[in-house]
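Re-running the complex after MR caught last week's input typo. The corrected sequence lines follow. Everything else is unchanged.
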Amino acid sequence: MSSYIGRFAPSPTGPLHAGSLVTALASYLDARAHDGRWLLRIEDLDPRRETPGAAQAIIAELAMLGFEADAPVLFQSARHAAYQDAFERLQDAGLVYPCACSRREIADSQVSPTPDGEAVYPGTCRAGLPPGRAARSWRLRVGDGTITWADRPAGWDHGRTQRSVLAQGVGDFVVRRADGSWAYQLAVVVDDAWQGITDVVRGADLVGSTARQIHLRRLLAYPEIRTLHVPVVLAQDGQKLSKQTGAAPITAGDPLPALERAMAHLGLAVPTRGTIGQFWRHAIQRWRDSSWTQGVS
Ligand code: GLU
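Corrected-run output:
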């Protein structure tokens, strides 16, 4: 076994679909091709966005498709104490503050929209809550520094160096909401560190979160993580296929067609139809021989 540890971290907003299967497959093949471990984490942070039964459905579907996790599934709903601990460390360092602003207020404060359409927090509550206003969330101070990073060479921008100034791109961002619930950015960083993840392989739709996660990771003194963002599956209208847009669940029964489609999406030659065991042996070998593995020694 190598020191490589990868993961697949779906949010249980619906069953697995063609898009999430591509991410699951890429993360799994990368872990296996590096003789590493692969972990499954259910990101059930927000009960309001969760579809009842989806977490168990995803776990069952992955097992049916032949994915084998190397540790028991981690549920974010069981990790509040760990997030609280990290939050308190940020709080003790004076890095978080309560914020009263609503989404609408932040959107209305924009002079011009950012390239990715995300509103930049203007810093309204950084020096304290305005009189008579109650906190709606807790934000992390981002400072003016530039975050420099690169995806692995086969990733979304071919390993080119990325420079993000968080203060310009997103501003101080939410790590906790006033109801006590945790933001994805904080939870993902705490759990990746706790699970010892060395490589994050996920959809390119999450590229925009990477600089925030690197920033948090550094503040919390966690080890650095390599990233590989793979192309997302688009619906016919060009939108990202997602559970929210009603993407069709993959068909149960014969697992091979869905796996083959996911492989083709990653540009890998699909092995001749055989058993599921043969599929996995071929797929791991194809990934190992492909350019996807560049950048990991
Ligand atoms: N839970 C996130 C999602 O389903 C993925 C998180 C990640 O891979 O960092 O979109």
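None of the earlier attempt is carried over here. The pocket of glutamic acid is lined by residues 9-11, 43, 188, 202, 206 (CB under 6 Å). The chain has two domains: 5-78+233-293, 80-232.
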